[in-house]
Amino acid sequence: MPQLNPGVFSMQLFWLAITFGLLLVLMAKVALPRLSRILDARSSRIDGDIAAAKAARASAEELQAAVQKQLTDAKASAAATLKAVQESVSTEAKQRESELVQKLTAETASAEARINAAKSAALANVRSVAAEVAQAAASKLLNVSVSEADAQAAVAATAQGGRA
């Protein structure tokens, strides 16, 4: 094998050193700067993405706080509106109830007056009918003719608890 021939070792070592040196220079001047630029670009992009994510997060938190504030304000406004409506409805209901009580009181008084008038009329009618019945009974039973004035006086006295 020619690689293991000790006579060509020095020549192989020489070319090994030259090839190593050329590859070292080639790597240092061409490949490593490209890799360095790629790594720097990735690092910059990652840092930019992290900064954008932090900014988006801060914006989202601000937006969430604003929405929460609006929601709280809306709830408070709705509660105030509801309270005002309830008070308005309550006031209106009390007013209607008062009007209805007044109306019913007036109708009750009117009805009582009509009832009393009807009662008085019925009692007057009952007394006249009772006087007619007493007159007819006296003429049929006793064969006595009683005047209408005497019959009404007898009914009035009986209605008051006395006798005629």
Description:
The chain has 164 residues and is mainly alpha-helical. Helices cover 89% and strands 0% of the residues. The protein is built from two helices and no strands. The chain is rod-shaped and about 190 Å long.
List the helices and strands and how they pair.
Blueprint: H1 9-142, H2 148-159
> Which stretches are low in confidence, meaning pLDDT under 50 for 5 or more residues running?
none
- Along the chain, the helix and strand elements come as HH
Structural class category = mainly alpha
DSSP E strands, number = 0
Helix content: over 70%
Strand content: under 5%
Short summary:
This protein is mostly helical. Helices cover 89% and strands 0% of the residues.
What keywords describe this structure?
single chain; 164 residues; mainly alpha; 2 helices; rod-shaped
